[in-house]
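[recover] target loaded
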């Protein structure tokens, strides 16, 4: 079900929205719905409130002794929010792990920080996809 409402935008912002709408081939309504959804998901992620779905991407050094075992052990502690994981070999020494997650934002944030603080982790980031998962 949709509800209609009126919104005022500064001219420069409306022009940018129009450009994106045309280039993406979607309506302004769809564009604003997507933007609102992303804002809601990111707010939930930052505040650690509510449920979110997304992916944690982790770049790490494959050669750090015991790191992969520690990452696996942590994943087992968070099976309630982990949907799937994908291991990718970037180089002989560098790997990327993508963990698909769904559930409580605070729990997912705890998973990410538990892995991110390990020795050998180079970078990590969270890509939020949706908050409409109930």
């Amino acid at each position: 079900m949709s509800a209609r409402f009126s919104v005022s935008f500064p001219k420069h912002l409306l022009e940018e929205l129009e450009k994106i709408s045309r280039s993406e081939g979607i309506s302004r309504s769809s564009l604003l719905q997507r933007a609102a959804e992303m804002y809601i998901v990111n707010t939930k992620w930052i505040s650690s409130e509510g449920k979110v779905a997304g992916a944690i991407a982790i770049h790490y050094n494959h050669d750090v002794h015991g790191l992969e075992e520690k990452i696996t052990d942590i994943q087992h502690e968070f099976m309630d929010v982990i949907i799937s994981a994908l291991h990718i070999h970037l180089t002989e020494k560098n790997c990327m792990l993508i963990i698909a997650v769904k559930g409580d934002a605070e729990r997912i944030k705890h998973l990410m920080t538990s892995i991110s603080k390990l020795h050998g982790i180079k970078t990590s980031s969270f890509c939020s996809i949706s908050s409409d998962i109930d």
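[recover] notes: The first strand starts at residue 51 and ends at 61.
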